[in-house]
Amino acid sequence: MFVAWTTVAERADADRIATGAVARNLAVCVQIDGPVTSHYRWQGKDEKSDEYRLTFKCLPGSLLPLEEYVLGAHPYDTPQWIAVRAERVGEKYLSWAEANSSTPPL
Questions:
Q1: Which 8-state DSSP code applies to residue 60?
Q2: 95 inside domain
């Protein structure tokens, strides 16, 4: 299983991207946190903004299509996209994810 993150400025964008990812069977679950405060450097200036963080859970076969969907639907010019392989996943949660994914189980 993979866990991936992005952030957006507006709750409506977070809901739209999350709903689309699940409806397209690209993510088995998307959680939205926020607002969270992000501190970063953009175009040479220190910035601070409130954003909504989306956390996606997906199976390996869905990771690339999920990334393509999120980046294509994202309102930012340079969206955050970070994905990591989950080292351990509860057996019941993984079984649920496999049963609710269009990707065949490994």
A1: G
A2: yes
Q: At what angle do helices 63-73 and 11-23 cross, to 10 degrees?
A: 150
Determine, yes or no, domain membership for 104.
no
Q: To which residue do tokens 């994810």 refer?
A: 97
Model-level pTM? 0.90
User: What domain count does the chain have?
Assistant: 1
Residue-number span of the structural domain to which 40 is assigned = 2-99
| N- to C-terminal Cα separation, the chain | 10
The answer to whether the beta carbons of residues 30 and 15 sit under 8 Å apart is no
How does pLDDT run along the chain (106 residues), one tens digit per residue? 999 999 999 999 999 999 999 999 999 999 999 999 999 999 999 999 999 999 999 999 999 999 999 999 999 999 999 999 999 999 999 999 999 886 544 4
